[in-house]
Specification:
The protein is an alpha+beta fold. The protein has 9 helices and 42 strands. The protein has an 8-stranded parallel sheet with strand order 23-22-21-18-3-28-26-24. Strands 7, 10, 11, 13, 14 and 16 form a 6-stranded antiparallel sheet that branches. It starts with a strand and ends with a strand. The relative contact order is 0.12. Bound molecules: alpha-L-arabinofuranose. The site of alpha-L-arabinofuranose has 11 residues, from β22. It is an enzyme of class 3 (hydrolase).
Length: 639
C-alpha cells in the first residue's frame, strides 16, 4: 500500500531534469550524426597537434589523472599516426602505374592544409578507392550529393567518379574532364540511388596519365533531419528527438579539455562553411571534421525544443598535471573565447559573433541557457580560472546559468572554491549495477541550500544490458525524488558507431544503415516521457502473501549465522523462487550456502532496504540453495 498525503506541497521537479550529452567519441559525428560517407575526406586524418610528442608512429598522449586519487584513467594513450592516406587505396595493374602521397603545398583551404597528390603513369584506368566508414550505405529512391576538388597539373582527365557494389555493379557514375592548370576547381553531381545496399564503395578512375591534387571528397545524403542542407542523419537525429531532451550538452567530455591546450576543441573553428573547418585529431584517436559543429549543435537544440548547454575549456587541459594549462596572464584569451561563444549563440546581430551567426543563416538567437566552465576539472588551478571566467560571464550575461565542473562528488565543496560562485556541480558516475542499485538514496544525504547538482555523466559500464539499465533506472529514481537539488542529468556517452567503439557502453548504437537504442535508451526515454511536476512524500506498507509462508528461520549470532529450520513443503523442482524479508532490514550474505545437519551456514554482510529481493534460485530447493544467499530474522519463501 502506498500512502500519500495529498495536502502536502511537495518539491518541484526541474523541467530540465532529463537531457542528453553529446561528444565526438566512438565516431559519433563523422559517418554518424554528421552523415559524411567518405572516410578521411580531406586527408587530415592523423594530422596531430604539434604539442603532442610521438615516436615510431605512435603518439604518447598525456593521461588524464584523477586529481584526488592520483589514479591514472584507463584509456588509450597510444595511437598509430603514420598513415595519412588512411581509408584510401590505389588499384592498378602494377605498382609502377601510380603513386599517391599527402602533400601540403597550395592547400585548398589553409585550415585543412593537406591534400592528396596523385601521380599517374598509366592510361589503363588507375583507381583510387574509398570504402567509407566500413561501407557506404544507400537507400533506394534517396538522393545523394557527390563533390570533390581537384588541382590538375597539365592533366585533363577524365576522372570518373562511381559508386559500386562488391560485385562491381555501378550504382552511380559521372566522368569529369579537368580544366585549368594548377587551380583548384569543384566537381560535383547528384543522383538518386536505385538500390538499397550497405556495402558500397567510391571509385575514382583516372582516364589518363598525369598529376593531379585532390581534396574534400564528399558524399552526403540530400535528405536530412528537418531537411537542413548538409544537415544531420535523419534516423539518428530522430532517436535523439524521441528522447524529448530538455537540454543538449556539447561538445563533451574530454574533448573540451583536449590532450593539451592546443588540442582542445575551439568552437569558432567549428562554424561556417564546412570546407573551411579545420577539424581536430581528438583524444579518442581519430580526426574529426566538426561537421557537427557549434552552429549545428545550437540548431539541433532549437529543432528539438531543447535548451543548449555549451561546455567551455577552463584554461586547463587533460595534461594539467604535466603543467599543460594556461597561466593566469594568458587567461584573458580564454575569457574572450568563452564570451565569444555566448555572443555567437545569443548576441545581437550588431555584435561581432551575432553577425557571424546571422551570416551563417540564423539571425535569431539560439536557445543557449547553460554554460559549464571546464569538464571533469578540479583543484586550485581550476578554481582560480573558474572564478575568472565566472566573473566575466556573470557580468555580461547575468541570466545565463553557470555550472562548475568539479569532478568529485563531495557534499562539501573544497575550500579553494569561492562558494557564492558555485551554483551547480557536475559529478560523474561510470560504475557497475551494484553501485547504482545501492545508491538510490545517495542524493537524500546531500545538504540543501548550498549548490544544485547536474549529474552530467553516468552509466552502468560493467553491465551494458537490461540489468545495467534497470540499475540506472533505480539511480534515476533517486535523482527524481531529490529533484529539489538534482536539477539536471544526462547519460553518457550518447552515440556509438558499432564499428568504432572507444567506450564500453553507449546509449545509442548505429551502423551505416540502421540505428537502435540499448535498453538504457528506453530507460531514458521512459523517464523523459513521464516527467512529474512535484515530488510527494510517500510511505510504503508491504503486504506479504500469507499463503506462501512456508518456513521460519532462527538466528544464532549476527556474525556466524546458522539457519536452523528451513522448511520447504515441496519435493518438486522449483523453477524460480525467492526469499523475502518482512523485516525492515535485510542482512544479505553473498557466498555459498551449504545445507548440512546444522542447517544453512554463511557469513554476514550488508543491509538492504526492505522489500529488496535477496536472492533468486532455480532448481530443487530441498537439496540445495544456490550461490547468493541471505540471512534475516524472519524469512518468507515464496514460489
Ligand atoms: O563519456 C566519456 C568520457 O568520460 C568523457 O569524455 C569524460 O568527460 C569522461 O571521463
Amino acid at each position: 500500500i502506498i500512502n500519500i498525503d495529498l495536502a502536502q506541497e511537495g518539491n518541484e521537479i526541474s523541467e530540465d531534469l532529463w537531457g542528453i550529452f553529446y561528444e565526438e567519441i566512438n565516431r559519433s559525428g563523422d559517418g554518424g550524426l554528421y552523415p559524411e560517407m567518405i572516410y578521411n575526406r580531406a586527408f587530415e586524418e592523423k594530422n596531430i597537434p604539434h604539442t603532442l610528442t610521438y615516436q615510431d608512429g605512435v603518439i604518447k598522449a598525456p593521461s588524464k589523472v584523477d586529481y584526488e586519487s592520483g589514479r591514472v584513467k584507463n584509456w588509450q594513450t597510444e595511437f598509430d599516426v603514420e598513415n595519412k592516406t588512411d581509408g584510401w587505396k590505389l588499384e592498378s595493374n602494377s605498382e609502377a602505374d601510380a603513386s599517391m602521397k599527402v602533400v601540403t603545398a597550395s592547400p585548398l583551404d589553409p585550415a585543412t592544409p593537406h591534400s592528396l597528390l596523385m601521380d599517374i603513369q598509366s592510361n589503363d584506368g588507375v583507381k583510387l578507392v574509398n570504402g567509407g566508414f566500413k561501407g557506404i550505405a544507400f537507400t533506394k529512391g534517396e538522393k545523394y550529393d557527390f563533390l570533390f576538388y581537384a588541382r590538375p597539373f597539365a592533366f585533363t582527365g577524365p576522372i570518373t567518379a562511381s559508386i559500386v557494389d562488391t560485385l562491381g555493379n555501378v550504382v552511380a557514375t559521372r566522368a569529369f574532364d579537368m580544366s585549368g592548370n594548377n587551380e583548384w576547381d569543384a566537381y560535383s553531381f547528384s543522383f538518386t540511388s536505385d538500390v538499397t545496399n550497405n556495402a558500397l564503395q567510391l571509385e575514382l578512375t583516372f582516364g589518363a596519365a598525369g598529376q593531379v591534387c585532390l581534396d574534400y571528397i564528399s558524399l552526403l545524403p540530400q535528405s536530412t533531419f528537418m531537411d537542413r542542407k548538409g544537415g544531420l542523419r535523419k534516423d539518428i537525429a530522430q532517436m535523439l528527438a524521441d528522447l524529448n531532451p530538455a537540454f543538449i550538452r556539447w561538445p563533451g567530455g574530454c574533448v573540451v579539455e583536449g590532450c593539451t591546450m592546443e588540442n582542445r576543441i575551439k568552437w569558432w573553428e567549428t562554424i561556417g562553411p564546412h570546407i573551411t573547418r579545420k577539424g581536430e585529431w581528438d583524444l579518442w584517436g581519430y580526426h574529426n571534421t566538426y561537421g557537427f559543429g557549434y552552429h549545428e549543435f545550437l540548431q539541433l537544440c532549437e529543432d528539438v525544443g531543447a535548451s543548449a548547454m555549451y561546455v567551455a575549456n577552463a584554461g586547463v587541459s587533460c595534461a594539467a598535471r604535466n603543467g599543460d594549462y594556461y597561466e593566469m596572464d594568458q587567461m584573458p584569451e580564454i575569457v574572450e573565447q568563452v564570451l565569444g561563444s555566448i555572443e555567437y549563440a545569443i548576441g545581437d546581430v550588431s555584435t561581432k559573433w551575432g553577425a557571424e551567426r546571422a551570416k551563417n543563416g540564423h539571425p535569431e538567437p539560439f536557445p543557449l541557457k547553460y554554460l559549464e566552465i571546464g569538464n571533469e576539472n578540479s583543484g586550485e588551478i581550476y578554481a582560480e580560472r573558474y572564478d575568472m571566467i565566472y566573473d566575466a560571464v556573470r557580468e555580461k550575461y547575468p541570466d545565463l546559468e553557470i555550472l562548475n565542473a568539479h569532478f568529485f562528488f563531495t557534499p562539501e565543496i573544497p575550500e579553494y572554491y569561492t562558494e557564492e560562485k558555485i551554483q551547480m556541480l557536475d559529478p560523474h558516475w561510470y560504475r557497475d549495477a551494484e553501485f547504482f542499485f545501492a545508491n538510490t538514496q545517495l542524493f537524500d544525504t546531500i545538504p540543501r541550500g548550498k549548490f544544485d547538482i547536474y549529474a552530467g555523466e553516468y552509466a552502468c559500464i560493467q553491465q551494458g544490458n537490461m540489468y545495467g539499465a534497470l540499475s540506472e533506472a533505480a539511480f534515476m529514481t533517486g535523482m527524481e525524488r531529490n529533484a529539489d537539488i538534482v536539477k539536471m542529468a544526462s547519460y553518457a556517452p550518447l552515440l556509438e558507431n558499432v564499428n568504432y567503439r572507444n567506450w564500453p557502453t553507449n546509449l545509442i548504437h548505429f551502423k551505416n544503415d540502421s540505428v537502435y537504442g540499448r535498453s538504457s535508451y528506453y530507460v531514458q526515454k521512459m523517464f523523459a516521457e513521464n516527467r512529474p511536476d512535484v515530488n510527494l512524500d510517500t510511505q510504503l506498507d508491504w503486504v506479504f502473501p500469507e499463503e506462501k509462508i512456508i518456513g521460519g528461520i532462527g538466528l544464532e549470532s549476527p556474525s556466524d549465522l546458522t539457519i536452523k529450520d528451513l522448511i520447504v513443503d515441496t519435493e518438486d523442482d522449483v523453477d524460480n523462487a525467492s526469499i523475502l524479508s518482512d523485516e525492515n532490514n535485510w542482512k544479505v550474505v553473498k557466498g555459498t550456502w551449504t545445507v548440512n545437519e546444522e542447517g544453512l551456514k554463511a557469513e554476514a554482510i550488508p543491509t538492504l532496504p526492505q522489500g529488496q529481493r535477496a536472492f533468486d534460485f532455480e532448481g530443487d530447493v530441498t537439496n540445495s540453495i544456490h550461490n547468493e544467499q541471505i540471512q534475516a530474522e524472519n524469512l518468507v519463501m515464496s514460489f
